[in-house]
Amino acid sequence: xxxxxxxxxxxxxxxxxxxxxxxxxxxxxxxxxxxxxxxxxxxxxxxxxxxxxxxxxxxxxxxxxxxxxxxxxxxxxxxxxxxxxxxxxxxxxxxxxxxxxxxxxxxxxxxxxxxxxxxxxxxxxxxxxxxxxxxxxxxxxxx
Length: 143
Ligand SMILES: [Zn+2]
Description:
This protein is α+β, with helices and mostly antiparallel strands. It has 2 domains: 1-40; 41-140, no CATH class. Helix content is 38%, strand content 11%. The chain is built from 2 helices and 6 strands; from the N terminus they run αβββαβββ. The strands form 2 sheets. A 4-stranded antiparallel beta sheet has the order 2-5-4-6. A hairpin with a 4-residue loop joins β4 and β5 (118-120). The longest helix is centred in the N-terminal third of the chain and has 39 residues, at 2-40. It is globular. Zinc ion is lined by residues 113, 115-116, 130, 132-133, 135. Zinc ion binds at residues 113, 115-116, 130, 132-133, 135.
């Protein structure tokens, strides 16, 4: 975006049309790229309702999360447990997704329990027992 804006300023005088053409096709390309990646699968089965929830939480505070499969059409096609899956099925799917996420260092990741629907900002709690159900906590992204 910024690059396009700078170029636009630079070339506005005589080449505006072709540069904005480039920007347009670049933006189209980005949109095309983004959609299939997002559609492929999630790396967690819950989200928090508000953006930036992690910013105001202390290491011992827990926030309620929302299961994605309740609001996603055809959740299984997105790598999510089916709507109405029982706790063990939800946890099995979530644990697999977490393994993937655990293989990538992502700044500010926290932990969550996909069964109790609670999350915490302290990544050092990863794979330690959930305070409610004692299942191992999984890796959680906030954005
Ligand atoms: Zn739990």
